[in-house]
Automatic annotation (TrEMBL):
Family under the similarity heading: Belongs to the tRNA pseudouridine synthase TruA family.
A GO molecular function held by the record: RNA binding
HAMAP family recorded: TruA (MF_00171)
GO biological processes: tRNA pseudouridine synthesis
UniProt-recorded name of the protein: tRNA pseudouridine synthase A
Source organism of this protein record: Haloferula rosea
Pfam families, sorted: PseudoU_synth_1 (PF01416)
Binding site for substrate: 111
Reactions mediated catalytically: uridine(38/39/40) in tRNA = pseudouridine(38/39/40) in tRNA
Purpose: Formation of pseudouridine at positions 38, 39 and 40 in the anticodon stem and loop of transfer RNAs.
Family annotation (InterPro entries): PsdUridine_synth_cat_dom_sf (IPR020103), PsdUridine_synth_TruA (IPR001406), PsdUridine_synth_TruA_a/b_dom (IPR020097), PsdUridine_synth_TruA_C (IPR020095), TruA/RsuA/RluB/E/F_N (IPR020094)
Entry-linked SUPFAM superfamilies: Pseudouridine synthase
EC number from the UniProt entry: 5.4.99.12
UniProt enzyme class: isomerase
Amino acid sequence: MRIKIVIAYDGRSHAGWQSQPCGNTIQDQLEAAAATVAKEPIRIHGSGRTDAGVHALAQVAHFDAPDHLTMNPFNWVPALNTKLPPSIRVLEASEVSSDFHARFSATNKTYRYDISTEPVLSPFKAGFAWHLPRQFDPFLLEDAMKLTLGTHDFQAFSAKRGNETDTTDFQRTLSQADYEPLDHGWRLTWSSNGFLYKMVRLLTGSVLEVAQGRLRLDDFARLLDQPRNLPHGRAPHCAPADGLSLKEVRF
């Protein structure tokens, strides 16, 4: 039986999603909990990686339950949660078809990024908002974000993993790029058919550079769709992990 799970987590105390030797990633914690329940190793496949310190409101993953476990799929929710640290919670569990894949079946992802403009950051927002106590122009912010909508080559907004080749595809299609006011801050929302490594953080950092008058709007525009054989710049600033949350994955 293939099980789809929806997970929420506070990323502050974890080393990201992807399994690492340290054992303190979201994937490691979930696999350890599942192995305890099943009494055998279980591989968890996520919809994508989140960096250390990044949160999730609704990350999606799947795994194949061993044949000897015949419990109702929803019972995986309490079974896993009793084995997980309080910073990770399984919200839903359901049976899916054998061809479902949390990563390859996903069609759209939405991230949100919270920014605090308070003079002093509340300790209750630490790790959940980028503290940016400066004035910036929301109209310039909107203009910069609108430029990213549609299909573009985002190589200038992608951090290198070291496995890129001449055929690496940096094209992605953004269907949403907007912002809304919060009490003492702002929330940026990005939706796309896929995101490159650190793409949301690099886009967020760059549009805020425009909004603060540190980067001209036309220079920002030139970072999009650069010729592969003649690149002329990279994103000027990568926003911190603080404040970034995976909001939704659609299939």
